[in-house]
Amino acid sequence: MTEIAVLGTGIMGAPMARNLLSAGFGVRVWNRTTEKALPLAGEGAAVADSPGEAASGADFLLTMLADADAVAEAASGGAIDSLAEGAVWIQTSTVGVEGNERLARLAADRGVRFVDAPVLGTREPAEQGQLVVLASGPGDAEERCAPVFNAVGAKHLWLGEAGAGSRLKLVVNNWITGLLGLLGETISLARATGVDPRSFLETIQGGPLDAPYAQSKGGMMIQGEYPPSFTSDLARKDVGLVMDAARSGGLEPAIAEAVARYFDGAIEDGHGGEDMAAVIEGIARS
Ligand code: NAP
């Protein structure tokens, strides 16, 4: 049986581990807060006490942790050193350009093959195995990784050398977080000018100005309820990664800067663990 160690059983990692189990992988899981990994034990996963224990002798390491620092700590704290000979590390967390380079170097230093594979899709696509995997790395690793990608995703793109996946992921996330900031401002503008924000969503619905995202996240903003699919804390992290990448490329990302300010306000007011639609709470107070 092919063994895979999954580090991180949060909103994304837990359903990915479930789908790997369903696809017939032997799955070992580790999570900093062990209680969050325990439900997977009843579904056939081995719950490990440390990253090294999870990775011991495994054919794949799959990391799905909050950020590059968390991934580096877990991977270097025993995980990559205890993998099976020839194992592949599939790094699926969103870590940005510099973060990806740092992790790729870590893998190279320890002689482990590294695939940069951030994902598109949120809680529900993760649960349904419908993520889109933006993979890049050594060309001969694609075939090896395909069964893992097929288990967690609807499709994967193979984008070239490691780093291409993380760069595309940031471009897409800039679109997502920019749209979200504009949506929050638009709903706030409606409120500030005495327009019922629901009439804005109804007006664009089904036409060329609509976006499924506007309807789902806009509905949450209007209700003021934010059950998390993607937390404001992590969305703010991604806006920071976008700004770093933009500046390295010679751009001044004015929209991302405004969205970052809105998220900072929302997080300061206690919405960090709620869905990123709570960005509107940072607009309301600014
Ligand atoms: P989440 O539910 O908040 O889970 C975060 C995970 O990281 C948990 O396992 C958490 O452990 C762990 N963690 C955080 N800080 C840590 C540290 N210092 N050391 C060790 N572990 C640490 O987040 P998620 O939504 O699954 O996101 C995971 C990654 O996927 C992030 O990079 C995110 O940007 C990316 N992503 C998310 C989505 C989405 O829609 N949710 C979509 C695409 C990509 P504890 O349980 O102990 O806190």
Alpha plus pi helix count: 12
Strand order of the largest sheet: 3-2-1-4-5-6
Taking Cα atoms only, what radius of gyration do you get, to the nearest Å?
20 Å
Structural class: alpha/beta
Heteromolecules bound? NADP nicotinamide-adenine-dinucleotide phosphate
Overall number of strands: 9
How much helical structure, as a percent, in the residues?
40-55%
Word description of this protein:
With about 290 residues, this protein is α/β, with parallel strands linked by helices. Helix content is about 50%, strand content about 15%. It contains twelve helices and nine strands. The strands form two sheets. Strands 3-2-1-4-5-6 form a six-stranded parallel beta sheet, sandwiched between helices. Helix 3 (about 70-80) packs parallel to helix 4 (about 95-110). The longest helix has 29 residues, at about 165-190. NADP nicotinamide-adenine-dinucleotide phosphate (NAP) binds next to helix 3 and helix 10. The site of NADP nicotinamide-adenine-dinucleotide phosphate has 26 residues, from helix 3 and helix 10.
